[in-house]
Known about the structure:
Chain B has 291 residues and is mainly α. Chain B is 78% helix and 1% strand. Chain C has one domain (2-121, 128-276): ABC transporter involved in vitamin B12 uptake, BtuC. The N and C termini of chain C lie far apart (46 Å).
Amino acid sequence: MTTRKSAYALTSRRTILWGMGLTVMVGPMARNMAWAADDIPIGILMPLTGAGGIAGPHMLKAAQAAAEEVNAAGGPLGRQLRLIVEDDQTDPEAAVKAARKLVDVDKVSAVLGTWASGVTIAVAPVTQAAKVVEMSTSGASRITEVQKKGYVYRTEPDDLLFGKAYAELALKRGWKTAAVLGLNVPFTASTVEAFRQRFEQGGGKVINYITYNPDQTAFKAETIQAFQNDPEFIHISGYEPDVTGILRAAYESNLKKPFVVPAFAMSSDTIANLGPAAEGVILVAEGVDEKAPAFAAIKKLFPGDSYQPHPAMAYDMVNLVALAIEAAKDSSGEAINSKLKSVSGPPGTEVSSFAEGAKVLREGGEVDYRGASGPIDFDENGNIVKSNFRIAEVKDGKIVPVGMLEDVVF
Amino acid sequence: MDQYLIAIVTFTAIYGMIGLGLNLQWGLTGLVNLGQVAFFAVGAYASALLLLAGAHFIVALAAAAMLPAALATLVALITPRLREDYLAIVTLGLAEIIRLVFLNEKWIAGGPDGLTGIPRPLLGSATPSESAWLFMLATLAALFVFFMINWRIATFPIGRVLKAIRSDEILATSLGKNVLRFKTQMLAVGASMAGIAGAFYASYLTFISPAMFTAQVSLNVLVAVLIGGQGNALGVLIGTAIVTCILEGTRFIKDYVSILGGVELAALRMIIIGLALIVIVLVRYRKASVR
Amino acid sequence: MFEIKQYLVSGILIGAIWMLPAIGISLIYAVLRIPHFAFAEFMTLGAYLALGFAAATGLPFPAIALLAAVSCGLAAVIMDQAVFRPVRQSGVLPAMLLSLGAMLILQNIVRFFWGNGVRQYRLPLQRPLDVFGFNITPNHLAIILVSGAVVFALYVLLKWTRFGREVRATANNPELARVTGVEPERVYLGLNGVAGILAGLGGVMMAVYTSLTPLVGWNSLLPLFAIALLGGLGRVGGAALAALVIGLTSEYSLMFIQSSYKNAIAFVVLAGLLILRPRGLVAE
Lengths: 410, 291, 284
């Protein structure tokens, strides 16, 4: 059936195929030769490209800084941490392939930094099966289901906490009616539902709930809908691009109301670009513990815009893993998993760095790591049990903190 | 290392199945389907939902085959005489709409959250590495079946009919063959293949969400079929392997080429695929226009 | 009542923006007889080139928009001659495939140089004017007026210039046109240039109205083709009217369905057209 011509074509295709197959296999082998035999491989799986591409590179920077500090202090069990970095492309399928590579080829004991909920969920079966720890900054509540099988930890407050925080804020300000604009991504539904519950419990009512899609760029119509029936404030549950679009649309239609948005949706760049349209917007940020000693490192890495929850979490992840290895006296995924909860929370001496913690652990004590992103105490599922939220307002183009919501719990 | 290769082989086999489906539609019948991912998605969701509801895997597999076929038949009915350009536009649009529906209609399939915990039929009690092996073997078996179907159709009399349809519709019609019926059937069968591939995909990853079913998938499969030489089933498999290598292999390049960041590399990957598409089309079709 | 008035404005606005690239696609479809997907990505290219020019020079924005549009026209011509001309005689399929490849490459060139994030032009935010009781910002009003002017110019171009006559002749009957002295390649070249300019301009306008993302073109793909087919391939006035229809329908649909399905409207129109007018929308 194949003619001579296509047989030839097949052969040259086959050559290309072999060449590429070889590259796939030689690549990691070549790299492995550069390391010391007892280095501990730790996987970094972050969104360097894709929708999460704004967050990934910063998180990576923070993680690398943490690893350098840990290694400079001698490293856990006297061994050096080696970070192996992969891009999850904010895509579950690509993430699974990358996770497989980290787990099988690089033999990491932990995979840190998955950001998108879909990615975290897709990667979990891979890491759980291999008894490798996964640490994530995803907020979606449904991840708790997956966490019940173990080995998955989240440093981000669950959406339910976030939703509650928005409601607490609104009730504190005496608002009774709300409109919600929600981006159609996983975290929105659970956050808005938690918000609605707490808000209605406090006597409030959500009078408009409008959802819109990712990649949408025109928001005029949706914004107008949100303003219908005169709500006292509008909560936007979305990311930077859409939040920006909505604020602009409101300004350009002469519509003005207090907006409450997640702080991760507004950077200082956005605020600068929006100018007067950003004035008065209220930002709610998951805990970054600016008073914690560990936060100093984040300040150094991001001068000028140091309120970076996810990079702070990435920093903490590396430290926690190092401490867990030290505490368990073993670098396997199982070992890390067995000690992560204990080094993260009470009881124990409060420590803010690997150096401090290693000293205490080697003397036989226990530690309670207090991180740049907060106290980080994991519950039995691997979630943080309580979180602080910082409230800030945009005044004259600057982010001005105006208060804290402390100890929001489930 | 072996688990990683098993994973790569399984993914490639699944994409190979989608490609063989497209080969049936386009390579053998000349139907320009730019929305193969729509059928892939429908099959994946159908199987996942049924398995999660406790259905037997045969039922799930049947649904994964039937529903996309029904959708394909609908497309054939809408598109007047399945004319090339109309079909291209309609299928492209359809894929987008399907994705939007899955994204927005939570009650169908969880919306942006997707579906988790999708079971792998018959493998529930296996250890993870056994499960990976057996699943790969099952996928390869299905791939083989599709391969045989493609090969048979190409070599049997029906293949000649299709070839005739592809090169000269009017002539074929005048010979009394019901062209439209053939085309519709081929579109449906090709869609079924993509649907079954979707069922394997959903169970392999145990998690699916609308974000995984973008137009890029249709394009990747298209390039794979093009590289392989339309109509050539073995070529489709080789093409799929090559595209997989391009997409996976660049992961290892960044260790050596540090000037390019992740974003640039990702864009470059796509540009390479686009260039491959253009080069192959020019090479193949330029000869036809030389006068 | 406020909403109804606002949807009218946003509907006309989005229609005015889509009009230009849609006319380009419509003309190319009528004359070259292929659905040229890549022209949606020329919108993207145009928008980002404007961003680049704005950063590199200090020219006023209208000049930059023009520069970007003309660059797209040029790029389209080069692309056509290098990639599409060799397969001119090979039918619809190869050209469609090439168009897909071009689409992929254009979008990713933008991603390569400008990344994946969302950007804005450095234009000051504006308060809306009151025009006969409707709210609209000066920039948006300018978009509508410019679009209208360009459409009018195109209409004149096609009806009264020699080039226009050649385009119409080639669209109707290429063989006959050739016999009467029209050089098809010249027509194709000119048309690609015009379509490129239209797409580039449309892209800049879209980015002014919304934002710059690598998906600017892709998101408009379905509406553009729906408009081209609804308006009758090759008909400038038809496409302009169709653009308004689809723009208004998309915006007003918000009163009944979720915002997420806006693009679905275009698809439904498309499907409906094909079912109801199976003889084809251009003379075969």
